[in-house]
Amino acid sequence: MSPKALDYESLNENVKKVQYAVRGELYLRASELEKEGKKIIFTNVGNPHALGQKPLSFPRQVVALCQAPFLLDDPNVGLIFPADAIAKAKHYLSLTSGGLGAYSDSRGLPGVRKEVAEFIGRRDGYPSDPELIFLTDGASKGVMQILNTIIRGEGDGILVPVPQYPLYSATISLFGGSLVPYYLEETANWGLDINNLRESVAHARSKGITVSIAHAFCLNNKITNLDIFWNSEAVRAMVIINPGNPTGQCLSVANLREILRFCYQENLVLLGDEVYQQNIYQDERPFISARKVMYDMGPPLSNELELVSFHTVSKGYWGECGQRGGYFEMTNIPPKVCSTVDEIYKVASISLSPTVPGQIFVGLMVNPLKPGDISYDQFIRESKGILESLRKRARIMTDGFNSCRNVVCNFTEGAMYSFPQIRLPPKAIEAARRLGKVPDVFYCLKLLEATGISTVPGSGFGQKEGVFHLRTTILPAEEEMPAIMASFKKFNDEFMEQYEDHRGYSRM
């Protein structure tokens, strides 16, 4: 009897290749321990509200009124909700075809897309076209739609920064493409060496289409621990994550110019993952969009380079992960008949429409309160308080990791994560291998069992051979952070004492 369609051996092979470490072995074990009654601190995913961040008052008031529009007819509504929240709710309800329970256009509400375009224009100093903006269920859905459109088969490669957010490796595997890694340099604060990038791609292409570009990267960098690569006939796109996830670095204007020139010369579409643009914890490198830098560079690059940029309400000081609001904007992709835009619209239409409450959150993010509005002062007080606390937590965590034996960590310039390098002693590596575990998975499991701190092993993001990391969010409450770092330090010191024959590991 032949296997049934949902028997494991007959499943789509691309699905079996998908790995997503953020909710992988460590997360599953943490969930088991939590069910057993152990207190777990879930720092494995950037989920601010789950770790105690309070929602911003004004957007929740607006969406509450949109969800229950009958409240607008109550004569006492003004006693509970501020007048500007009432007005804003009426505004967004007027943009829908039947309130939050009705489908919208597959690209999202035209009125909200117009607000996104106006926001982008104010941010960058260059106008944006609402017809080239798609609202999505979080940025991840947009990334998947674009990669699904770009990838034609396993011969198509996507350049992805390593360490990388597993959304990219998982999605590329799911759609049958090839991840082509470019490695960020830890000793240069996770910077990108554009010359190394160019040389690696040139070396691969010089060998012809039967040579794996990813393999060339591995040879050049002596890397062997990533097993998701395939022969790549054509590199089609390049991903940047700015600020970085998991590495937390912010790209400089000079680095962005190099990347844009590279993509133009290599005829690549640039995918700009800019979801952490509000999360900046230093003053030297503020966030500047790839789009603005591209337009500042002028023609022909600004007229011809294809760019897709992503943003979301899940990060920043909003942290509205569960609301699933996001968007992507396409630049230099003309919206004409029988065009790429039409094909992307077809893909979006399969899901009928993005969630409407999420779209309204996007509108509230890009069309914020202004000085003089009734709720403005409260909104600024809440949002600034969140960012100032995150800045403090980034410093507490970085300093805490760097105070630990055999741990080194670059400062979290932006985003929501710390990515320390753990110098695992040879005895620990051997103990892990005897158990059939990747060494940093072994370390993180021991950390989880001892402290309840749930992290993600660096191997889930990609890293150089023989180098080990973990990723943790900086999101636990500020008042809890010293105790969490003290718990980590105690565990780490005991772990190193158990497995280390000698001290004195030097920085990579």
UniProtKB/TrEMBL annotation:
Keywords: Aminotransferase, Pyridoxal phosphate, Transferase. Residues 84-474 form the Aminotransferase class I/classII large domain. GO terms for biological process: photorespiration. It catalyses: glycine + 2-oxoglutarate = glyoxylate + L-glutamate; glyoxylate + L-alanine = glycine + pyruvate. One of its GO terms (cellular component) is peroxisome. InterPro entries: ALAT1/2-like, Aminotransferase_I/II_large, PyrdxlP-dep_Trfase, PyrdxlP-dep_Trfase_major, PyrdxlP-dep_Trfase_small. Its cofactor is pyridoxal 5'-phosphate. Pathway: Photosynthesis; C4 acid pathway. Signal peptide: none annotated. One of its GO terms (molecular function) is glycine:2-oxoglutarate aminotransferase activity. Homodimer. Belongs to the class-I pyridoxal-phosphate-dependent aminotransferase family. Alanine aminotransferase subfamily. This is Aminotransferase class I/classII large domain-containing protein. It comes from Rhododendron griersonianum. The lineage of its organism: Eukaryota, Viridiplantae, Streptophyta, Embryophyta, Tracheophyta.
